[in-house]
């Protein structure tokens, strides 16, 4: 297999997100192809880890399924969502194997915990694509440059707060390999700055409520007025941190800079309103469509090349983009969110103020 380095950059000029049906359907059902240009029939199992983050049911699933249908009209997609339960996900993998899946596209709840299931699939000549989160020993891996995500968040926070100040670090889930990479990237910037990390927390299962409780508890110890910024690993934890700060009496206009990731709608609205400083936009369309392309190719016995090596696994690594008030328009221009999505009556004035159209 040729492993030529190939990085997919998400650029404002080049990336155009097409229209895709975005209605979320029930988990753990099958979707057959029916209208694209054909190929040999195959069964592809697609596993997502949870429903806490809006992106999975709203974007990843429908985009993946639509691309499979386009590439292979006779292919069937078996869809599973583990609802953050690693044991349930292992059972789902067993079920997919029993149902005759030819390829597994797997976003793990816990990359280490699922390794035995991955090995079982591979022992039966079923290739496994690690999707978005790394699985050691997978046949392929595709995700964004996760340390770069953390670096971008750290750089944005340092720029917003300045060289001195006191911050909190609200990291991702300790059982998510990506979270460790985000944290490492952020620390590589923050540790070299003059910022003081007052307290740090790994948010169990990425639950916003857990993030909110940590920030609430920390505020009780140090006082809200001593916190100059918050590193939050994703938009859910950012929402929890902001809820804790406002719950402690900090006015929305006085909130310290808070980072995020995923460009979730609620976070984009907070950015427009000046309540959240930034998020990291990762083109889910780019990732999900490439996963579908690789899955269909493998299912049809084709060779997959143009990969790069990541920890010994042939990989496709995509580049993220920082979004603030200054460039939130790009999410509209690329079709990720519409003005109507973002600028609801509550946010209409804020949209007008920044010229979002």
From TrEMBL:
GO MF terms, alphabetically ordered: carbohydrate binding
Subcellular location: Cell envelope
Listed name of the protein: D-xylose transport system substrate-binding protein
PANTHER family for the chain: D-XYLOSE-BINDING PERIPLASMIC PROTEIN (PTHR30036:SF1)
Stretches assigned to the Periplasmic binding protein domain: 44-303
The organism's taxonomic lineage, starting at the top: Bacteria, Bacillati, Actinomycetota, Actinomycetes, Propionibacteriales
Keyword terms of this UniProt record: Signal
Keyword Hydrolase in record: no
Lineage: superkingdom: Bacteria
GO cellular component, one term: outer membrane-bounded periplasmic space
Any Pfam family the entry gives: Peripla_BP_4
Species for this entry: Nocardioides perillae
InterPro entries assigned to the protein according to its UniProt record, in alphabetical order: Bact_Solute-Bind_Prot2 (IPR050555), Peripla_BP_I (IPR028082), SBP_2_dom (IPR025997)
Signal peptide region: 1-24
